[in-house]
Amino acid sequence: PVDAPDLTGAGPAEVLRRIFGYDSFRGSQQEIIETVVGGGDALVLMPTGGGKSLCYQIPALVRPGTGVVVSPLIALMQNQVDALRALGVRADFLNSTLTLDQRRLVEQEFVAGRLDMLYLAPEALGTAGVQQLLDRGKISLFAIDEAHCVSQWGHDFRPDYLQLSMLHERWPDVPRIALTATATTATHTEIATRLKLDDAKHFVASFDRPNIQYRIVPKDGAQTQLLAFLQSEHAGDSGIVYCLSRASVEKTAEYLSGKGIAALPYHAGLPADVRARNQSRFLREEGLVMVATIAFGMGIDKPDVRFVAHLDLPKSVEGYYQETGRAGRDGLPSTAWLAYGLQDVVQQRRMIEQSEGDLAHKRSLSAHLDAMLALCETVECRRVQLLNYFGEEAAPCGNCDTCLTPPEQWDGTVPAQKLLSTIMRLQRERNRKFGAGRSIDILLGRETDETRRGRHHELSTWGIGTDLSEAQWRSVVRQLLAQGLLAVEGDYNVLTLTDGSREVLGRRRTVMMRTEPKRKATKSSRSSG
Ligand code: ADP
Ligand code: ZN
């Protein structure tokens, strides 16, 4: 580490310049920093890459004492501390990876007032040992990073975060700053309540990331689509490919490697040393593609991630936005690409049904998924839809697939009725429920062993859907599922009717559908940027 510069009496602007080497603050950084330096509490909602870290690092340096940073990311504490030390900041961490001797040393430094910043895991703060330690030193502030982890209905809930409400009771004079990149109004309120941030000043930055181009394509051989996307638009670029399962992470990484793309796998099932090695290679080297589950990425600060691709449907808009937000932190044009298909919807609905937890929890998961599906099926600007979701108004952006190649809408009421009526007839006349494939076979009048055995050709909807292709029928099923006009149930993912389906069948409701555009979205933002 370089020598610690003498910062006695230095103000925020000077610290920004001398330690971090930046000329000016971004967005509301200055106001946030002044609030905390002045001893006030702050709740900061800022998108990934917005510059949250400085909001607590600078006050920690300006105020006397040690800034205690609560972070859920034990794996990344070392990186964060290394980065700060390289700047001459006296930072350290306490977590389960330290030996007893290492621990003692850190504790000594803290008590002696020789630390600017101390990183802790949330569970550590709950222990008497750590609490007593903190009483023996001087604390300049508490920073609660990834504060949305306190939200019980959120996608990153960590029970240990709940106890952080005691910080205020135990150390009432120490200012607290809670930070997150998750911005729904519900999470926002929940953070304030659960952390008892009653008098905190709220700073809500715009969540728009204008340099990210959002694109969502219907899945049709996802790996091949991904390869084409990478080769045609992001050859040699660094990026992240998210998959739902460990198995698909491995398969996809192998597939890409086989096609000459430098791809590394990352998921919680890999040995810790492999994960650490792949992560640090991704951070250090250029042009690597990280194929990962969502276990990867939180807290990763790599400015030049040029694309984030999703091969499976994220569970929520919050998750999607946070994951895609890892692209383009340097402000240069980047792509968020998602391939989504019928199978995704079916699979996720089933996962929710089988998940543990009470009805309220399942409803909440379902509502999150519905919002994600609505984003996938929207005929409007993706960015407008995203920002509206986070409570922000916006105008069509000109830099997403629906703006670049507007999808047409069509009245899909009649095909919807044909499909729903087929499902209803199978249920009533055959007393059976099937997956999407069977209904499509019936609509297309395709004889198979199964349709013969079930005498499905005797149904009145046999062959009445030949005006649409199989792919179009799949899109109809998907959109009906997305709109809640059809549901999936049971272990075999069979389709079943909803109250909404009955409205469609009873001609009390029309169904508008999205026509998938034929042309691909262009890279206009890249060439003009
Ligand atoms: P977040 O935690 O909100 O995702 P970071 O704190 O990691 O974002 O900041 C993202 C990037 O922006 C980092 O590389 C950081 O050094 C840089 N950055 C932050 N504030 C400024 C600033 N005022 N001027 C220039 N660069 C900044
Ligand atoms: Zn748009």
Automatic annotation (TrEMBL):
One Gene Ontology biological process: DNA repair
Protein name, entry field: DNA helicase RecQ
UniProt-annotated stretches for the region Disordered: 511-529
Domain Helicase ATP-binding: 33-201
Domain Helicase C-terminal: 222-373
Cofactor(s) of this protein: Mg(2+); Zn(2+)
Species the sequence originates in: Catenuloplanes indicus
Keywords tagged on the record: ATP-binding, DNA damage, DNA recombination, DNA repair, DNA-binding, Helicase, Hydrolase, Isomerase, Metal-binding, Nucleotide-binding, Zinc
EC number(s) from the headed UniProt entry: 5.6.2.4
EC category name: isomerase
UniProt family annotation: Belongs to the helicase family. RecQ subfamily.
Catalyzed reaction equations: Couples ATP hydrolysis with the unwinding of duplex DNA by translocating in the 3'-5' direction
UniProt KW Isomerase keyword: yes
